[in-house]
Write a structure and sequence with these properties.
Rossmann fold, three-stranded parallel β-sheet
């Protein structure tokens, strides 16, 4: 069973690099992006088919709780 990783800020510089590294190590990668932010996925376009993006807000504990259960 593959390990899973959840990355907040996956479309940023550090998050996108971390996603690449974890994919190379065989992880299933999930990344959170804010609903209010512009949909800028340029840094992860080359791995877009290998990751799953979810919308969320770090300031909303209930949405984070629900995301972690799925």
């Amino acid at each position: 069973m593959p390990r899973k990783a959840f990355i907040t800020g996956i479309t940023g510089q550090d998050g996108s690099y971390l996603a690449e590294i974890l994919l190379e190590k065989g992880y299933e990668v999930y990344g959170m992006i804010r609903r209010s932010s512009s949909f800028n996925t340029a840094r992860v376009d080359h791995i877009f088919g290998d990751i799953e993006l979810v919308f969320g807000d770090l300031t909303d504990g209930s949405s984070l709780n629900q995301l972690m259960r799925t």
